[in-house]
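#lab-general

N.A. 3:47 PM
ok so I finally got the sequence cleaned up, no stray characters, all 472 residues accounted for. can someone with queue access submit it? mine expired

B.Y. 3:52 PM
send it over

N.A. 3:53 PM
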Amino acid sequence: MTVQYDLIVLGAGPVGENVADAATAAGLTCVVVESELVGGDCSFWACVPSKALLRPPSARDAARRVDGAKQAVSGPLDVAAVLARRDSFVSDWDDSGSLPWLESVGIDLVRGHGRITGERRVEVTTADGETVVLEANHAVAVCTGSAARVPNIPGLADAQAWTSRDATSVQNVPASLAILGGGVVAAEMATAFVALGSAVTVIARSGLLAGLEDFAGEAVGKRLRSDGATILGDSPVSVNRTGSGKVSIELDSGDTVTAAELLVATGRTPRTTDIGLESIGLTPGDWLSVDDSLRVDGVDWLYAVGDVNSRVLLTHQGKYQGRAAGRAIAARVSAPKTQAEPWGDLAASADHERVPFVIFSEPQVASVGLTAEAAAGAGYRTRVVDYDLGAVSGAGLHADGYEGFARMVVDEDRGVVIGVTFVGADVAELLHAATIAVVGEVPLTRLWHAVPAFPTMSEIWLRLLETYRAGE
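B.Y. 4:20 PM
back already:
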């Protein structure tokens, strides 16, 4: 059976859904192909379940930071209730609730594994072994995302180690957990499992949250240690699942870490190994290089959106790319030579130096734009403004003894903010104001007139600007 559509989308996660939605809204016919669950990793194994696991300890800690409330909160978390609440957010890994939306906006769904077999042609092998052939009148969008990268460490492949999927879908919290890696997944899952009662050991050769402002990893590491976690700056040289069922990790220091489970959180790899890229002259297993309209370099009908292009591996940025790609595809149907202009609807311009993200550790880390080091490396003439977030009156009211920190990176030549990082309890809610300042390139002379409400933590903006002015 061969079916024609204007657009074929491989992957029905949030990114693929946004590509299809934008294109369908512009009048194109669309089909999405999905081999697992509609909603993808974000909905079932990543963003949603991880934050569902992290929210109960965060809410408990928020109460414990306020005298008068902390007396009402005692005892450990109810682990069974935490996991049950997580299960409710992932609908017990049932995607039937996602299907009515697809139907309501006119997007067709084909379940099965899709492979590109030629120009604008996709063959889908369904669960029962049948083959459905799809032909695109205009474009194919690859939105297959990424998977956990498992490093080549002797014994690791046979040790039945966890990836982030196993951690976020856990049904029985292990007594002990070793985490290999120091990035976002490692920081968040260490935070969650310490709170759930596991003895956690983080093995991070480069330390926690390398690549961010130094104070971010230092603050998260300090809190994890105070909660009983161990953080080691070593590298594993071998891994073994022992006869007792535990995992033994030999380190280059000569020490050995033993834990009930091992979580590998050492980065991501593109899901492009078995989608037929070789049929159109591309290399399976590679990230797909794209322009700002998310069109694959050298293939005018193929788009790669979200993690698979390696620009920004974040769901909200992938959805942003999806909106741009869907509109660009639709625009090129009527005008094939349409180019995506910077800051227009058809380009993902913010994916270069203006990316916002939150790490839901304790404390939270919220950042947008460039770090001080990255800005200097990119050639900007900068001034870095630091401020103790705990000294802001709104923060003191928010939590007794509030500890936090803020950094603003200013492009001195243009007088605009190009990077902001906040560390502290609940700083995620400060991030969008920073994102608007950075993406909108709001001049500091104008930003001075954006008056923060009293008494809120947003007063940090006034303090940062005052500190900047005092240094003029």
